[in-house]
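Supplementary Data S3. Sequence and structure tokens for construct A.
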Amino acid sequence: MKHPLRQHIEEIIELTDEEFDFVLTHFETDKKRKHQYLVQEGEVVKKEYWITKGCVKSYFLDDNGKEHILRFAMEHWWITDYESFVKQTPSNIYIDCIEDCEFLYISFENRDRLTAQMHKMERFWAKKSKLGRIALQKRILSLLKNSAKERYDLLLEQYPQLFQRVPKKLIASYLGVSRETLSRLDS
């Protein structure tokens, strides 16, 4: 059976056994418990994470301390603060674990080295970046044009497993509604 990261990469590019072994040497593993941070506001982000087990949320706190969820990420999804990671500037967001999690991660330096030495991986991350921008655009458009009920139904249709794994107050924050409104949408 193929390594899950190899299966993920090969959805976009093909790798030989030797190429995948080389790719894997650039990654390390990590585990975090529920409520532990991957990223905290103000720190320069040095790692990009690929989730092998668990679920995380990325969010920011407004001036009143209210949490606004930007995204969730589950198994076989990538997550980091991309602005901080790419520009090597302080993060504006938090990323923490909703569940106990396991990750493969690649450091900023290792990703630069890998893409310089293996152009296939440069193509892989370029494609993943494009797909991420498309998903972000869809999320923004949904927030701007869809009703709360439509956003709820779309999330339920696309990611039904989130509703089993994520507390309702976090789902409400992601949808931009109150917990009470979410309860009405859920009924």
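Construct B, processed identically:
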Amino acid sequence: MSRAASPQPPSRSVLAGFLSLLGEFLITVGLVLGLFVAYSLWWTNVLADRQASARGDEIRRQWQSAPGANGAPGPGALDTQDGIGFLHVPAMENGEVLVKKGTAPDVLDDGVAGYYTDPVKAALPWEASGNFALAAHRDGHGAKFHAIDKVKNGDAVVFETRDTWYVYKVFAELRQTSKYNVDVISAVPKESGRTAPGRFITLTTCTPVYTSKFRYIVWGELVRTEKVDAQRTPPAELR
């Protein structure tokens, strides 16, 4: 009885062709992934910065054309979809950051910082007490809080409105906490070490870099306010 012929291994030429096609496929996938990363981490920054800059310029034009503090509503009246003011954090070296209402992606993706309205409503700087809690992206879409880890105790955080400079001093940070930890933006953020009401500012963003698994928190407390003069001379902390 004859034996069936055993299967022969594929020829070297067929195997070489397969490996060549596989290599080309992997190179293509790598290029696509590289382009996606470049878009996410660079091009979205370009677009967001361009859009935020244009809106910031518009806000400043509105301020210049508005009547003085005695002839116009208070700063809260400027709480429009365009923005309420500008955040300055010298330690981040990120220039001025337009601040708008809300922390949803469609707000923060515009290259701005947003103040919380949910699950805790932030107190605005001109209110008698509370926590002016802000969020911004750490990577992509402007990455306004990318260098938050450079902010240390004693550093200045300044918020600029049409009429007033609000000068805060950083007093605590929390380098990693759950994204569900809403106590860090409460009116009295006890994890910061404070137990009594005050006028606080809280900066929040994602951590580690390039992920959104946890949150990075920086707390500051108001130390003084300065009226804006005709030349909009910045406070000493920004000179």
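The first strand starts at residue 85 and ends at 88. Confidence is low (pLDDT under 50) at residues 69-74.
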